[in-house]
Structures are given as structure tokens and as C-alpha cells.
Amino acid sequence: MKDVTIKRKETYERMAVDFKQDRQLTGYHHFRRLEIILSLLNKLGENLLILDAGCGDGLQMELYSQSHRVVGMDIAFTRLKRAKERVKKNAVFQGDLFKLPLKEGRCDLVILGEVLEHLEEPEVVLREIYRILKPSGHIILDTPSQSNIVDIILKLFGIKPQWGYKVDTTHLWFFTMNQVVALLKNAGYTIAKIKGGSFIRYDLPIIHHCTWVKKRRWVYRLFDCTVGKLPLLKRLGAIQVFMAKKVSTGRCTVG
Fold first, then answer.
1. Which CATH superfamily is domain 2-246 in?
2. Would you say the pTM of this structure is higher than 0.90?
């Protein structure tokens, strides 16, 4: 595991040097997933102690910090330097999600923004996050998902969706909604909320180009907010956001 950790650190450090995240929120799917995360965050109260696990260059951290105490963690030192420049008042540290250097029961909330799909053993990380959460603590995570309208239709014709691996070659997993739910429950959480975002797959050729045009964002947002009100569809999306609560009475399992 030590060799894997070193390799992971080297990979993400190279990516950090080559790619700044300053334009990330221009992409509609990034904008929408953050909008959903912030709406869920507002329901949990103010002045929470939050760990932004995989904070990157600190774009999201900057927004979370407006109402909460936020600590940022990333495996890439270059990203942490940028995050510290962006949000000077917040503490940041370099660390590994598989072994967090935090005491048990420390955080009110941990946010995993597009991180789960990059992990070799996601359930191990979810259990480690469980350890550092307070008894009433929450986790919010988002990930690309097969449980979207386009892929559900394609599966009816025997076509297995693979785009989740192609949009980022460092993705190790491409989950369905039920797979993420099972991971969370096996790690000891109860599901509080699931919301879908970017209902139209953002990797499709023409759509992919348009989603990076900021002035067209309102079209996609209007569509998403409309579909998001339909009971049978509101949890589906090319991006899915999950909020789960720590079950302090013991771990629950899925049969």
C-alpha cells in the first residue's frame, strides 16, 4: 500500500503542476454539483467544522468558508499552495485519505468533491471518514454516475456506459447510484439525501462544448431544476450528490 500511496502522490502532483483549476467552475456540471452541495450544506446549519477532503486549488473551500470553519486536505502539495493563497485564513495540510491525521470524532462534516471514483478502495476511505466524524456528523460526496437518463436507455439496448472512465483517465470506478448507496451503508452511514445534477450527459460531443459556455448555463440549469422536481427522476443524473449521516449506534450492512 505504501508503494501505491507514493505512486498516487506522484501522479496527482504532476497533474497539479500541469493543470490549474481556476476555470473549473466554468463547466456547467461543476457549477451544478457545487450548487447542490451548497444547498445541502445550508440545511446542516452554520459554523460547522468541515474537512474538504481533496480540496484541490481551494475553489470550493473558498465558498464553504463563508459560513463555516474549513480545513483543506489534498495529496498534491502544489494544489495546497494554491488553496492557501486563495483562502489564507484556512488551514490546509497534505495527507492521505486512507489514513487521516485527525482524531476520532473531530469533524461535523467531510466533503468529498469528485474524489470517490479516484480511490483504489473507496469503502476503506469511507470508514476512515466515519472515524473522524462526530456522532451526528455527515458526509457529502458527488461522483459521475451511470444512473442517468441517457445511460439507462442505452442499457436497455445492451450498451454498457464507459464514459465515466474516459472523461478522466485517473478514474478507477464508474458507479451506479445503488453501488454508492451500498458503499455508504456498509461503511456505517444512513442515507439522508440523493440529488441528481447535469441530467444530460456532459461528455456528449455538442453538449460538452456548450456546457463550457457560461452564457448558456441558464438553459441547462432550467432543464435540471425542472427535471429535479419530478419524483421518478430527481435522483438521476450524470453527476449524483449524496448526503449521508453517521450511524453512531453501530454499523449497518446491506444484505
1. Vaccinia Virus protein VP39 (3.40.50.150)
2. yes
